[in-house]
Amino acid sequence: MTISYSAVWDDTIALTRRHATLIAAIAGVFIFLPALLFDVFLKPEDPQTQDLSRMLEMMVEWYRSAAPWLVLQGLISMVGGLAILRLVFAERTTVGGALMFALGLLPFYFLMTVISGFMVLAAAILFIIPGLYVWARVAPAGAIMVAENRRGPIDAIRRSFTLTQGQGWAILGLVLIVLIVGAVSIGVAETLLGIVFHLAAGQELGSLLTTIMATALTAAFSTLIIMLYAAIYRALAPQVPAAVFE
Fold it and tell me: Exposed e or buried b for every residue in 49-79, given b needs 16+ CB within 10 A?
């Protein structure tokens, strides 16, 4: 039976509301703040040129210089995401306990994301649609690692393929709907807020305020996606005993 979009979405909202305070605290420190610092201090400069080769050269130079900070930001965000999932699946845990759990799981989760990323890329090389399908099949792998306390990256990916058997296209459709609606909403909000802030506070301060708000919206949406993956896992594995989550 195909998963119910409405049931998964309702569970996503319910989980977010149930843990809202703790989730906001973790997301604020581990997702929003690193992204804001990166956007403010490491944002690429306007190339101010129409030469495509020069623009490409400047972009490559920027990525080369910013790469260590991009990796660091990604790792910090991963810790935040894993801690949020731990709060969802082990409700009696504390924020400190969730963070310690996340740090311990981080190396294995990182390896899992690298391996699954190569799998998606390999499928995408054949054609974009297979790549998206594989992406949907491995989407719950992070939630699986946390909920079932699995450390093996291959084991988690294999478990994800088992759980999502016959559900790949349904998961892809659900995630794409949420991503598209979220991206459009954030884009519209950022544009409108940018106009208001620039008119009210001037160019420099208005740009800073716009960056802060855009980063906050993106961080909130990223957190919502984490909760969506948790809800997808809960829909696929309702038979897993609660004791596994502790």
Answer: eeeeeeeeebeeeeeeeeeeeeeebebbbbb
How far apart (Å, rounded) are the C-alpha atoms in residues 77 and 109? 12
* Residue 232, CA distances (Å) to 21, 71, 87, 240 in order: 22, 27, 16, 13
Both tokens of 85, joined, read 């999932």
> Where along the chain do its domains lie?
5-245
Q: How far apart are CA 214 and CA 206, in angstroms?
A: 12
Residue 92 has pLDDT above 90, yes or no: no
How remote is the C-alpha of 160 from its chain's centroid? 17
Identify whether the C-beta of residue 80 lies closer than 8 Å to the C-beta of residue 26: yes
Average pLDDT, the chain: 89
Quick: pLDDT tens for 12-41. Answer: 999 999 999 999 999 999 999 999 988 887
Q: Residues 106-116: what's their mean pLDDT? A: 96
What pLDDT, in 10s, does the model give residues 124-135? 887 777 889 999
Residue 152 DSSP label = -
pTM: 0.88
CA distance 133 to 85: 23
Instruction: Report the C-alpha gap between 94 and 17 in whole angstroms.
Output: 17
Structure tokens at 97: 């306990």
Distance, in Å, from the CA atom of 3 to the CA atom of 90, rounded to the nearest integer, reads 24
Averaged pLDDT for residues 126-153: 90
First-to-last C-alpha distance (Å) of the chain: 28
